[in-house]
Design a protein that fits this description.
Elements: H1 7-25, H2 31-38, H3 46-62, H4 72-92, H5 96-109, H6 112-123, H7 129-157, H8 161-181, H9 193-206, H10 208-230, H11 232-236, H12 244-248, H13 251-260, H14 264-269, H15 273-291, H16 298-326, H17 331-385, E1 393-397, H18 398-401, E2 410-414
Antiparallel strand pairs: 1-2
């Protein structure tokens, strides 16, 4: 029997996600200031960005599966405390190597985000699972985009180290608060850590629902990464010539879109996860037509950013809802592997947007971003056309199998050939 999630707990878990993920992305807006302060050559600055990402990938593989073995509340508390340690090292370290070490430590334990989402899925009432996941995962996008605004302002006023000092303090406070406010989440099974690790590999090889959603996530977040990794390039150039703080303020448009998509969880709870995915991917593709106008009309860019972030968050919530419902006993490992696809997509978008911009300008980057979203849409369409292949598992809405159910839960059925 699930205990449910209160409004204050949803807010707390969303804050955990926002602050933890911020420790990975906060360095990007302040690279220009951090490099000279640490005596790093321009070509070495990529190491600062990569440190947190590499740590995060390691944490997804090594730490997230623990959520299916031990009390997730304890993990959330411990991971937040250790994220605070990594951020504090980055804030005070005198050399680039030590700052990278601090960022890597913070990145490893920033996977508390996935533990928080799995905790939310596990303790939510079935009829509110999508709503709660939507509210909590909105913190991820808020952190990724909001820290750009925060870091831009602090970096231009009190220095780039203040960003990590603040994040370290927030992580420490949230660790104490999570310990006090969250209910214990005890494991009911006897799964072992090594068994969970082995099941992650089998999941990718044998579960078509997971593989399809994972591939959609790769292209979804490649499109997302194309925008946010490359947006500073046209905005910092003629005719706009915006500074770091001004560019960071465009993150507010992304926040508006992400917060608006929190309602997608309610739609998913009513059994419309596939429909939400389809029209959101179509909206994502169309948003690039507006984003492509960045060199001529900033208001069209802002509208495009809102639509893009709304669509990305709606698909993200739908996927996590479907996957945690299909795999209720291993929500942590499922979310962990799914987020590895997310990380791969984000990295792909970051790499290709700078390559496209150097070759064809901002319009070229936009074509790449639209191509990624179109690939995700095509994957969804193909999955719908062949949604009941032999050996597949299919999520059916409870009203289709038992109209007397008291809540709009989802049930898992084997597909028929």
């Amino acid at each position: 029997m699930t205990a449910g999630v209160t409004r204050s707990q949803r807010l707390l878990l969303a804050m955990v996600c926002a602050v933890a993920v911020s420790t990975i992305y906060a360095i990007q807006p302040v690279l220009a200031a951090a490099g000279p302060d640490l005596g790093l050559a321009p070509q070495a600055l990529g190491g600062l960005v990569a440190a947190g990402q590499i740590g995060y990938l390691a944490g997804l593989i090594v730490l997230v599966p623990l959520g299916d073995v031990v009390n997730r509340r304890r993990l959330i508390t411990a991971h937040l405390a250790l994220t605070a340690v990594g951020a504090a090292i980055a804030a005070v370290a005198p050399s680039g190597v030590l700052v990278m070490a601090g960022l890597a430590i913070a990145g490893v334990f920033a996977v508390v985000v996935q533990i928080a989402v799995a905790y939310t899925a596990a303790v939510s009432d079935p009829g509110e699972r999508g709503r709660n996941i939507g509210a909590v995962t909105s913190g991820v996008v808020i952190g990724i985009l909001g820290v750009r605004v925060l870091a831009g302002v602090l970096g231009d006023t009190v220095g780039w180290r203040a960003v990590y000092a603040l994040l370290a303090a927030l992580c420490a406070v949230l660790a104490v608060t999570a310990r006090a406010k969250l209910s214990p989440d005890r494991r009911s099974g006897d799964a072992r850590y090594t068994q969970v690790l082995a099941s992650m590999g089998r999941l990718v090889r044998t579960d078509r629902l997971f593989l399809r959603r994972g591939l959609i996530a790769v292209f979804l977040f490649a499109s997302f990464g194309t925008l946010w990794s490359g947006l500073a390039l046209p905005l910092g150039a003629a005719p706009w010539n915006l500074d770091t703080t001004e560019i960071g303020l465009f993150g507010l448009a992304g926040l508006a879109g992400a917060l608006g998509a929190a309602r997608a969880g309610r739609w998913v709870d009513t059994g419309h996860a596939q429909t939400v995915t389809g029209w959101s991917l179509a909206l994502l593709t169309g948003s690039w037509l507006l984003i492509a106008q960045a060199r001529s009309a900033l208001w069209l860019l802002v509208v495009g950013i809102v639509l893009l972030d709304f669509a990305v968050q709606a698909v993200h919530v739908s996927s996590q809802h479907l996957l945690t419902t299909a795999n209720p006993t291993r929500a942590s490992s499922v979310i962990g592997v799914y987020m590895a696809f997310y990380s791969l997509g984000s990295t792909l978008g970051a790499i290709t947007t700078t390559w496209a911009y150097s070759s064809w300008g901002w319009l070229g980057s936009c074509w790449v971003g639209a191509a990624y979203s179109l690939c995700a849409l095509m994957l969804w369409i193909l999955a719908q056309l062949g949604s009941c292949l032999p050996g597949d598992r299919k999520l059916l809405h409870a009203k289709d199998t038992d109209p007397g159910r008291a809540h709009p839960d989802l049930v898992l059925r084997d597909c028929e050939s």
